[in-house]
Amino acid sequence: MAGARRSPAASRLLVLAACAACALCSWSALSGGCFVQPAVTPRNPELSQENIAKLAAAGALLVPQAAEARLPDEFVAFAPIVDVLPILPVFFLLLAFLWQASVGFR
């Protein structure tokens, strides 16, 4: 059926269905229905420079703790693999250079 051609009406219907599906996906993603909305907190306009500095210092102290997240108990056995995963894109980049060097940078 590789050589079969669609009628113009069928191809228009297919394009219309694809556009409708894209519009529906975009609308559902942008409408906020698939994400949890942040809690609305009233803004405090009386923030002084001192309070802002305290908040910045507290945030700087909390960042290293956020990087030390634990795996769930079921996946602790895979911790060595998870530790290596962020380095893999660097190896693919080096492999691309090695490949190009082997073919003479054509």
Kindly list the characteristics that best describe this protein.
single chain; 106 residues; mainly alpha; 4 helices; extended
- Sheet with most strands: none
How many beta-strand segments?
0
Strand content is under 5%
| Low-confidence runs of at least 5 consecutive residues | none
Radius of gyration: 26 Å
> What's the overall geometry?
extended
Q: In sequence order, what are the helices and strands, one letter per element? A: HHHH
Task: Describe, in plain words, how this protein is organized in 3D.
This protein has 106 residues and is mostly helical. The protein contains four helices and no strands. The longest helix has 23 residues. 0% of the residues are buried. The model has no long low-confidence stretch (mean pLDDT 75).
Which secondary structure elements does this structure contain, and how are they paired or packed?
Layout: H1 8-30, H2 49-66, H3 79-84, H4 88-102
Concise account of the structure shown:
The protein is mainly α and 106 residues long. It has helices spanning 8-30, 49-66, 79-84, 88-102.
